[in-house]
Design brief:
Blueprint: E1 2-8, H1 15-18, E2 23-25, H2 31-39, E3 53-56, E4 65-71, E5 76-81, E6 92-97
Antiparallel strand pairs: 1-4, 2-3, 2-5, 5-6
């Protein structure tokens, strides 16, 4: 199935000071390791190099909205997170495909 996702930043900080994004990881990717690599990937909008991602949005700031469309992965449980430094411990969850 096709997934349509809308992410709206309800705060008022800029993307440089308090950005948010949505990053859906492939199965069996260590979310803590990925978050650590992301936190130092300033030049690539906090997205580390590699082939660990199913889908992602751009980093957005307060009042901004971003939309993405992607194909649902195979059934399973996938991790998602915000990769802005310091956000991944609270801004993460499970994306369940049945």
């Amino acid at each position: 199935q096709t997934i349509n996702l809308t992410l709206k930043h309800m705060g008022n900080g800029t993307k440089e000071s308090w950005g948010h994004n949505f990053v859906l990881l492939k199965k069996d990717i260590d979310v803590n390791d990925f978050a650590a690599r992301a936190s130092v990937s300033v030049d690539s909008d906090y997205i580390p190099e590699g082939n660990d991602i199913i889908a992602k949005t751009q980093m957005i700031g307060g009042g901004e909205t971003v939309k993405i469309t992607f194909s649902a992965p195979l059934p399973g449980i996938y991790d998602f997170l915000c990769t802005f430094p310091g956000h991944s411990q609270m801004m993460r969850g499970k994306f369940i495909v049945e």
